[in-house]
Design a protein that fits this description.
32% helix, 5 helices, 167 residues, 8 strands, single chain, globular
Length: 167
């Protein structure tokens, strides 16, 4: 787990909300505090869809919705002249990307043993912080997946042109 302070909140939020930069993530939740508190749960409600829609395989195959589907809604909430009081977003790396990272990494841990590579995005009214985390399906003695994910987060930010420093 690492905590990174983002140097330009505006640049980060532009990339997060208006580009495809974070489309390799699934969306778990958001809480945005403005004049009201907006809370959005990213767990898909499959009963909302018709049987035909579910059977045709047109829906996202994960229990969480893809970030690209909800980013426009969150942008609509945040957009405006006033900055939110605070917010928190929880994103999960898509399973196929998590599997690829583990296969490239020097670890015996398999993707089946891991539940998620998580990116927590927190804004406290003055600074934006990213906190990486991992969740396993079972207890693991090997902490290599944590290091693999931490390094991947920093490489991702570097490639996206998002400056940061360790918090």
């Amino acid at each position: 787990m690492i905590a990174l302070r983002i140097k330009s909140t505006k640049n980060f939020m532009t990339k997060l909300l208006t580009t495809e930069a974070f489309d390799s993530f699934l969306f778990e939740e958001a809480v945005v505090t403005m004049n009201l508190v907006f809370s959005i749960d990213g767990h898909q409600i499959f009963d909302f869809y018709t049987r035909q829609e579910r059977e045709e395989g047109l829906l996202c195959p994960y229990s969480l919705v893809e970030w690209k589907v909800v980013r426009e809604y969150i942008f609509a909430i945040i957009r405006g002249k006033r900055t939110p009081v605070n917010f928190r977003f929880v994103l999960h790396l898509k399973p196929e990307h998590m599997k690829a990272l583990l296969e490239k990494g020097d670890t015996s841990v398999s993707a089946d043993q891991m539940r998620a590579f998580v990116l927590n995005i927190k804004y406290d009214g003055s600074e934006l912080t990213l906190i990486s985390a991992t969740a396993a399906n079972t207890f693991l003695l090997d902490k290599t997946p944590d290091a693999i994910w931490d390094q991947a987060v920093m490489r991702f930010l570097d490639r996206a042109g998002l400056e940061y420093e360790e918090a």
